[in-house]
Amino acid sequence: MKTVDDEEAARHKAKMAKRKAVQDAEVAGKTIEKGLLIVNTGPGKGKTTAAFGLALRMLGYGKRVGVVQFVKGAWHTGERAAFAAFGDKVVWYSMGEGFTWETQDLKRDVAAAEAAWAKALELMADPSISLIVLDELNIALRYDYLDLETVVAALKDRREGLHVIVTGRNAKPALVDAADLVTEMGATKHHFAAGVKAQQGIEF
C-alpha cells in the first residue's frame, strides 16, 4: 500500500478543493432541461449496448421506455429477454427482417423500414414514454429506405421532454446536425478480426 505523508495529503486536498470549485461552478451554469436527440454511430462495437444502458437508467427512475428495431428482429437477443422482465414499462418492437444482404429484397426492406418508422411515430406521440431507442435507424437512412428530411423533421419536432436515441453506423450529416449528443464509436480493435464468432451475451 502506498504511503502518503501529511504534506502530500494536504497538497492533494487543496488541489481537489480547487477542482471541486471549478466543477461546481460549471454544473451551476447549466440550467436547461430538455428532451435530447442522441446519436450513437461509428464503426466500433457498442452503439446499441450504450443505448440500452441509458434505457436501463431511465427504467431505474420508474419511467417508460420504447424500443423500435429497424434491422434486427430476425433473431433472439438477450437484451429483449432481459427487458421483458420490466413488463409494461418497456414497449418493444423488433420490426427488421435482417440485414439487407440477408433479405436481398429491396421492396421488402423498404416496407419493413416504413412500418418501423410508423411505429416509432406512434411511440413518440405517447406521453407515457420518456425515452425511445430507434435501433439501427441509421442503416435505414443510409440505404434510403426512408426519406431523410421527413425523419429528421419529425425527430426535431418531437414532443417536449422526450429523449430519443438513434443507433447505427454512418449517421447522415443532417441527423448529426440535428442531434444534441453524438458519440462516434471507434474500432480500435475487434475480436472478429481474430476469428472469434458472435457469442451469446456479447453480440446478441
List its salient traits.
204 residues, alpha/beta, 8 helices, 43% helix, globular
Could you describe the 3D structure shown?
Strand 2, helix 3 and strand 3 form a beta-alpha-beta unit. The protein has a six-stranded parallel sheet with strand order 3-2-4-5-1-6, with helices on both faces. With 204 residues, the chain is an alpha/beta fold. The relative contact order is 0.19.
Name the structural class. Answer: alpha/beta
SS element count, helices: 8
User: How is the quaternary structure best described?
Assistant: single chain
Widest β-sheet, arrangement of strands: 3-2-4-5-1-6
Largest sheet: 6 strands, parallel
Helix content: 40-55%
State the end-to-end CA separation.
Answer: 41 Å
Overall form:
globular
Unreliable segments of 5+ consecutive residues: none
Taking all Cα atoms into account, the compactness measure Rg is 21 Å
Overall mean pLDDT stands at 92
Strand content: 15-25%
What's the β-strand tally?
6
Helices and strands, in N-to-C order?
Answer: HEHEHEHHEHHEHE
Topology, element by element:
Elements: H1 6-28, E1 37-41, H2 47-60, E2 64-69, H3 78-83, E3 90-94, H4 100-103, H5 106-124, E4 129-135, H6 137-142, H7 148-156, E5 163-167, H8 173-178, E6 181-184
Parallel strand pairs: 1-5, 1-6, 2-3, 2-4, 4-5
